[in-house]
Amino acid sequence: MMFRKLILILALPLVFSSAVMAESGEHYLKEGVVAFKEGRYQDAVAYFKRARDNGIATSNVSYNLGSSYYKMNEYRQARAAFIEAAKNTKFQKFSWYNLGLIERKLGNNDDAVKWFRKALTAEGNPKIDRLANQMIQILSPAEATTKSSPRDSKDSREISTPASKPSSSLKTSGDKFAALNTTLGYEEFVADLALDRTHIKRPKRIKSRKIRGGVQVALGNDDNVIDANNNSGSGLSSTYLESFGYVDIPLGQNFTLSGDIYNQRFPDVSSQDFRLFKLGIHYTHKVGSLRIAPAIIYGQSQFGSLDFQDIMDYRVTVSKRLGKGKKFLFRFRYSDIEDAQGSFTQYEGDRQQYRFEYKTRIALGKLRFRYQIETNDRANTVNRDYSPTRNDFRIRLKQKIFAGLTLSTEVQYRISSYDPISNTAAILAERGRERDDDRVRFKLDLSKKVAKDWRLGFRWVYTDNESTGVSAASDSSDSYSKNDVQIYAAWSF
Residue 392 — left, alpha, or beta (φ > 0 → left; ψ -120 to 50 → alpha)? Predict the structure, then answer.
């Protein structure tokens, strides 16, 4: 049965292939402009790149990338983008002027003057002529031209926000400026320009999105390894080696094939080794201001030397941006869980999760609130309930501190409620009584980017689980505390 479900996952891209090919990267371009207007320049860069990777390889995409990089002080990347945009004569005047600003930021005044002079040679908006000439007067007064009128000099330190339609030099079919409400000086004129297209012709050839993935390896120590057979503390301590790898392979423009492999080995307690493999299909679609992403994921796990579970996950995620740095997310997840070998039949059944997240930015960094309710309908046993209802609350703060370090702290409170088992033996053993597990978990992660795609880090997780409604003598393992520390290295591409 699981094999048939896996075949279904792999067949989904074929079923929807015609719909995928009909999509364009237009919405990524529009999302990039929105992100730019809200000051989310890193998000803007990501959207513009996705627009380019999805076939919108136009000069305004290159120009928008240059504008975004400029706002992020990534001047060399901005320079490359503007040089690319200038290959289109309609963008030359603005691009050459911006290249002059970039060279000035980099301290190359002579090169800056050359670009400003070049901007004067291109046809287009006379305001750029005035601004370029003023910059030449500042950097090299002897070389200033007289292309601007002296009465325009009162505007030398300030410009108005551009109009909502383009100047004549940039007026192409469907192009327009996304006007920004700024009061920046003329040297930041580049920041006022982010181009959108309301009508984009379907590209002749759709470019493939990039394959992305990563690997993480960690060495750690767990002072109370969790026994998966009872989901409680084993009382055993062990070092461990943990490895995780993932890859996302684009299939067309809206589908993605994902693969994940996780492996945790305990040299001192090999019976608690855990391995997990996942394969999934994800689809992303924009409906108005909502981003909807359904997915089907097949998972297979091993515990110790035994096959553990086969899981089919059906997920739907809906997200919406609420302004600068703010985002709301809802996710529904239904899991069909089967015992893979007959050794863990108590966990067979289904699980449903409803997750709500809110993300925002504060002075200290990025803040995330999360609430999730989970219900279970498992097989259980005659003596014990394995179908808890869980309410999970989390808050996380991620911030950049000193020396390029990133600090992430998270506090979690989870309460799990188990129903009683109406069984004489269970009642006598006091394991079938109604109980609640209150779990508090604190996570701390400190990491540093040491190369373009490499990150080194330290992680500490403290967990304290208090179980009420059971006999301490007969079920003490349900109440436990543990410390898990690790150092890790992560590489992504």
Answer: beta
Q: How far apart are CA 484 and CA 493, in angstroms?
A: 28
Q: What is the DSSP string of 197-253?
A: ESS-PPPSSPPPPPPEEEEEEEEEEESS-EETTTTEE----EEEEEEEEEEEEEETT
Tokens 């929807």 belong to 16
Express the helix, strand and coil content of the chain in percent, nearest 5 each. 30, 40, 30
Q: Which residue has the higher pLDDT, 356 or 477?
A: 356
Contacts of residue 284, defined as CB under 8 A and 6 or more positions apart, other chains included, come to 254, 256, 291, 292, 293
Using CA atoms, how far apart are residues 223 and 380, in angstroms rounded to an integer?
Answer: 28
In the beta sheet, which residues pair with residue 393?
A: 371, 413
Q: Mind listing the pLDDT tens digit for each residue in 120-171? A: 998 877 888 888 888 888 887 665 554 443 333 333 322 222 222 323 233 3
Rg (CA), the chain: 29
Q: What pLDDT digit, counting tens, does each position of 78-110 carry?
A: 999 999 989 988 888 889 999 999 998 898 989
pLDDT at position 1: 53
**For residue 36, is it left (φ>0), alpha (ψ between -120 and 50) or beta?**
alpha
Residues 256 and 170 in one domain: no
Domain containing 44 — which CATH number?
Answer: 1.25.40.10
Report which DSSP code applies to 52.
H
Range of the domain at 433: 212-492
